[in-house]
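--- STAGE predict ---
source: upstream dedup step, 1 unique chain passed
mode: sequence only
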Amino acid sequence: MAIGAQDYIDKLLVKKYAGKQVENHEGLMEKMVDPEKMMETMNDVAYIQRNMLALSNKLGNICAQINAKARYKASGQRCLQRSNG
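--- STAGE serialize ---
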């Protein structure tokens, strides 16, 4: 993969912006996020996601049990209908 302008439009853009510089470093320290606060937030998000996963698994198990009971009852009713019918 080549680096640089590949076509005419890219070459024009390179010419246009070759001399431009961005200086947005003033006030950078004030804009930084406190690393400790960031770590606390990341831990909170991880804790919430872990709990959501556990709840999702429990809900899946409960739904599977309900479906199994419903199938069992439905199969029992079909057996009764066959024997009575």
